[in-house]
Amino acid sequence: MQQAVIVDAIRSPMGRAKPGSAFTELHPTELLAQVLAGLVERNQLDPGLVEDVITGCVSQVGEQSATPGRVAWLAAGFPEHVPSTTIDRKCGSSQQAVHFAAQGIMAGAYDIVIACGIESMSRVPMGSGRIGQNPYGPSFEARYAPGLVSQGVAAELVAAQWELSRGDLDQYAAQSHQRAHQAREAGAFHREILPIRTAAGLVAHDETIRPATTAERLATLAPSFRDESLGQRFPQIGWHVTAGNASQISDGAAAILLMSERAASRLGLNARARFVAFDACGDSPLTMLTAPIPSSRRALAKSGLALDAIAHYEINEAFACVPLAWQRALGADPARLNPRGGAIALGHPLGASGARLMTTMLHALEDSGGRYGLQSMCEAGGMANATIIERL
């Protein structure tokens, strides 16, 4: 079996999904096209050697409906013979794209693949694909009667299960902004961000980070998902989840260049990390956000590593309760958990987030000298991916 390695990983800055923000006037495939072009250019790679472009994207409707990786690849001016496919594993879509790319290399089906992700949540709003539609059939509804809840209410259930207070969530959210701001000020994001050209000029920095955020300010925000009709069914809920301690709706793209060791060696490119373990598993679709816990445990078991051997944990901050519950369940070191901030500060462009997290984790491992990194993301429907990489 040949080894799959990461040769490079880059991302766009993260843009707010609000009118007048960085990428609201930029077609999503144009955003991804620039990231793909930047990845190819900075590695002096012949694009004709790429065998597939595996793209994570959640809302595959409207401007993201025509196999966005394929459109972006051609928009970048690259060869027509290179194919693309689109993956939807909800928030973990581009992390799953990385899994499929690496596994294809390990199986001998590929030598050179790009795994990437795109989501323009300003131009293709979350949930666009199901407007007026019920995605659940009668058998599913009967099994989960009296019904599932929104992700926000699921976050409330997770906070209650792990006895996380409003103060815990707000303090964690403020820390995310502080860590991301410190990383940006120290230049820690410089190598991973590709500046993006827009009609308004060049965008070179994340516009989502709010350095003035404090737990005290966040404490003034009203709960976002309060629903008194659910009080009898879920009396344990404290209604602690707000817009301030949840991930930001945002626009962004990220891309990772994967190769077999022999291809990287043949092209004179440096193998920066290898894959140690993969996992994907499900958990309750009611609490929905808890699967990173069993998925991380399974990935660790597959790797033969103890949690203490992992230098960097990248657990997606869909809501502050997700990494906090993960930390408590696994007994993880909080200093290693999202040390450069997460989606609360950097945003969560759904289909791009898996590749964005891996890009940040790879660069952080290189900067710190850490050896192993573990990444996991909760996904709608009660699923999660987990990946362990080793810096080379």
UniProtKB/TrEMBL annotation:
<comment type="similarity">
    <text>Belongs to the thiolase-like superfamily. Thiolase family.</text>
</comment>
<dbReference type="GO" id="GO:0003985">
    <property type="term" value="F:acetyl-CoA C-acetyltransferase activity"/>
</dbReference>
<keyword id="KW-0808">Transferase</keyword>
<keyword id="KW-0012">Acyltransferase</keyword>
<feature type="active site" description="Proton acceptor">
    <location>
        <position position="378"/>
    </location>
</feature>
<dbReference type="InterPro" id="IPR020613">
    <property type="entry name" value="Thiolase_CS"/>
</dbReference>
<dbReference type="InterPro" id="IPR002155">
    <property type="entry name" value="Thiolase"/>
</dbReference>
<dbReference type="Pfam" id="PF02803">
    <property type="entry name" value="Thiolase_C"/>
</dbReference>
<dbReference type="InterPro" id="IPR016039">
    <property type="entry name" value="Thiolase-like"/>
</dbReference>
<dbReference type="InterPro" id="IPR020617">
    <property type="entry name" value="Thiolase_C"/>
</dbReference>
<dbReference type="InterPro" id="IPR020616">
    <property type="entry name" value="Thiolase_N"/>
</dbReference>
<protein>
    <submittedName>
        <fullName>3-ketoacyl-CoA thiolase or Acetyl-CoA acetyltransferase</fullName>
        <ecNumber>2.3.1.16</ecNumber>
        <ecNumber>2.3.1.9</ecNumber>
    </submittedName>
</protein>
<dbReference type="Pfam" id="PF00108">
    <property type="entry name" value="Thiolase_N"/>
</dbReference>
<feature type="domain" description="Thiolase C-terminal">
    <location>
        <begin position="271"/>
        <end position="391"/>
    </location>
</feature>
<feature type="active site" description="Acyl-thioester intermediate">
    <location>
        <position position="91"/>
    </location>
</feature>
<feature type="domain" description="Thiolase N-terminal">
    <location>
        <begin position="5"/>
        <end position="261"/>
    </location>
</feature>
<feature type="active site" description="Proton acceptor">
    <location>
        <position position="348"/>
    </location>
</feature>
